[in-house]
């Protein structure tokens, strides 16, 4: 058994979510969970990082590392943690070619004294994979063999189809989760997101607009992963910039529908026969409009929040990186080759030794 802490800062750049869990033998017990929202200025810098100069990127790398370290310390307080997994903030993801997550992990190991694993994706890329998605390993670990598929609605939406064996576990990014909705809200309403999906509920779904938002990515067979490189502000402005000025609520309504439609199509095409439920996590689960579309679209599957399994909506991804960190220090492979397309199972991550390193290695590798 290991007590692990995970930190995740997703494509939404809304903040860093932190979860602590006891991990052992295909079981996970949540101990703590908290999200630390980024101050607006920091969020703006993260969102601008893809076009930043090297100097700014280097500065942000350190600043995020310090922010993560402070968040980790606040969650740990007096508890004891064996290992930390920090996903970092993706600033670029070119599937199967290169991928960069920032947020210097040395600050976390220094501030907490806990050995910290970071940079989980490059090892999978080096093994011939997309480097993403990595969360289906968590889906398999906890739900493998259950007739369920798992959906995380973050900035990007991804689906995990856990089989009995890891080798047969599949999963991929379906396309946008909240990222286009968030962009539209920022541009038209100066809001960070569509609270509860209320703006979407007030607008009308426009099928012509929906057609213009179509992209070959949706029909591409897995393995596949995507990010804000594709579903960007430019993508949104190019396809519906004019409408966004004239009738923003209709655009937001259509984007909420697009998310549900592309997820439901992916479920119809790829969920194994016999699947009975869709287990939803991520901030997008709080968008009632997207969720009510999704509920009828995937019928007769039952749509359940991950929360009913004791894991809060925003705690799944950090909990997944807590698990991946535990696997890394055990030296256990933690990619799902059928998901990422990697040629082989790979041990993921880079280890930054903390004050507990010798003790931890002694305990694990006696
Ligand atoms: N109350 C809410 N109503 C609607 N959408 C929400 C709500 N809370 C969060 N979200 C959406 O969830 C996003 C954050 O979800 P998260 O799972 O952290 O995504 P990521 O992994 O990309 O950071 C926000 O940017 C927003 O779009
Ligand atoms: Mg987030």
Number of helices: 14
Principal-axes shape call: globular
Overall radius of gyration: 20 Å
Return the average pLDDT rounded to an integer.
97
- One letter per element, helices H and strands E, the order comes to EEEHHEEHEHHEEEHHHHHEHEHHEH
Q: Largest sheet, described in full?
A: 7 strands, mixed
**Number of strand segments:** 12
At the fold tier of CATH, the topology name of the largest domain is Nucleotidyltransferase, domain 5
Helix-and-strand structural type: alpha/beta
| Span of the ends, CA to CA | 14 Å
CATH class of the largest domain: Alpha Beta
Helix content: 40-55%
Return the domain count.
Answer: 2
**If classified by CATH, what would the architecture of the largest domain be?**
2-Layer Sandwich
Low-pLDDT runs of 5+ residues are none
How much of the sequence is in beta strands?
15-25%
What would you say this structure looks like, in words?
By secondary structure, the protein is of the alpha/beta class. The longest helix has 23 residues, at 54-76. A hairpin with a 2-residue loop joins β2 and β3 (27-37). It has helices spanning 40-48, 54-76, 106-112, 121-126, 136-143, 179-189, 198-202, 207-212, 233-246, 248-270, 288-297, 316-330, 337-340, 357-364, and strands at 2-9, 15-24, 27-37, 83-94, 98-102, 116-118, 148-153, 156-161, 170-176, 277-281, 302-305, 350-352. Helices cover 41% and strands 22% of the residues. The model has no long low-confidence stretch (mean pLDDT 97). It is built from 14 helices and 12 strands. It folds into 2 domains: 2-131 and 314-364, Nucleotidyltransferase, domain 5; 136-311, Nucleotidyltransferase, domain 5 (2-Layer Sandwich). Strands 1, 2, 3, 4, 5, 6 and 12 form a 7-stranded mixed β-sheet that branches. A 5-stranded mixed β-sheet has the order 9-8-7-10-11, sandwiched between helices. α2 runs parallel beside α3 (106-112), α9 (233-246) packs across α10 and α10 runs parallel beside α11. The protein binds adenosine-5'-diphosphate (ADP) and magnesium ion. Magnesium ion binds next to β2. Residues 10, 12, 14-15, 17 line the site of magnesium ion.
